[in-house]
Amino acid sequence: MHVGLLIYGSLATISGGFLYDRQLVKELETAGHTVDIVALPWRSYPRHLTDNWSKSLLNQLRHAPFDLLLQDELNHPSLVWLNRRLRKQVSYPLISIVHHLRSSETHPSLQMPFYRWVERQYLTSIDGFLFNSQTTRATVMELAPNTKPQIVAYPAADHRQPPAAAVLTAMRRARAASQAPLRILFVGNVIARKGLHHLVRALALVDREQWHLRVLGSLTSEPRYVEQIRQLLGVLQLAANVTLEGAASDEAIFAAYQTSDLFAAPAYEGFGIVYLEAMSFGLPVIAATDGAAYEIVTDNENGYLVAPDDHAALAEHIERLAGEPTLLEKLSIGARRRYEIHPTWHATFVPVIDWLSKQVGR
């Protein structure tokens, strides 16, 4: 197959969605298929909408030698009406890779009807869907019910090579015996959608001697929100307990997983590759009850699920883990086991590539 993949920016962008896209491209090329990237520039949502009237983009796609065009759903504002024009002029199918919907995020209430309408129009312009979770699939079907071809392919986490399970178990046991403060890790860009403010407010309810939080992720994506976080840390007198480290290399993230005790990111995720990454290093995970985290995290087995704004419940889980080393060790073992039974990237995408091949010429 000759496959096109339409994205914003660069395929090297650091995020779970772009990691998923990169791994899919890698598997397609390994299987002998050709993949061409069509990259649109990052701009504001209103300016992305103007791409629908771009003659150059339409001509580029119209004359492309594709057998199939994959579109990251993130690009929906640029394609919502252009797809309808394109389908009249090309024979190849348009397949959307859906990580999560913009309309599933938190936005000002006056904007939400518009976002939902635009996204619904985009979803109805597509010939088939590749979903990253059953939760994402259900969300799309609720917004735009359809019977179009679709497949669910969970992300994986074997792109990192964690230590062996026996090594991790020994590390966790030694750590539990040390009675040091709980080392909590948050990996993700510091943006409102990731919910760091909820975690900070919950930690304010826990004895400051019991924990320390490291935050690894971009501090430049939403500068205003980062400033709000800094102000919140000052008001709650938590600045000494929280380290905002900024964007980190793979090596730094790898090291952080090894030297942490607990991963906490209680926010909506269409799947949450970072949860699996943390589990591969034996870190229990605290995630949100909404979104797809329940497809990975099991209460009292490998972590906990909490409502993001239930700060008291979140604080209770953290306080308990800080004070009960045997519970922390149990959840650590459960987290690693959950990672080990999860499919690899290769196993995930073999059926996807077969499915994509069947969409050609439908």
Q: What is the fold's blueprint, element by element?
A:
Layout: E1 2-8, H1 16-30, E2 34-40, H2 45-49, H3 55-62, E3 68-72, H4 76-79, H5 82-87, E4 94-98, H6 112-123, E5 128-131, H7 134-143, E6 150-152, H8 165-178, E7 182-187, H9 196-203, E8 211-216, H10 223-235, E9 242-246, H11 250-258, E10 262-264, H12 273-280, E11 285-288, E12 303-306, H13 311-323, H14 325-340, H15 345-359
Parallel strand pairs: 1-2, 1-3, 3-4, 4-5, 5-6, 7-8, 7-10, 8-9, 10-11, 11-12
Helix pairs in contact: 1-15, 8-14, 9-13, 12-14
Provide structural commentary.
- The mean pLDDT is 94.
- The strands form two sheets. Strands 2-1-3-4-5-6 form a six-stranded parallel beta sheet. A six-stranded parallel beta sheet has the order 9-8-7-10-11-12, sandwiched between helices.
- It has helices at 16-30, 45-49, 55-62, 76-79, 82-87, 112-123, 134-143, 165-178, 196-203, 223-235, 250-258, 273-280, 311-323, 325-340, 345-359; strands at residues 2-8, 34-40, 68-72, 94-98, 128-131, 150-152, 182-187, 211-216, 242-246, 262-264, 285-288, 303-306.
- The chain contains 15 helices and twelve strands.
- The protein is 43% helix and 16% strand.
- With 362 residues, it is of the alpha/beta class.
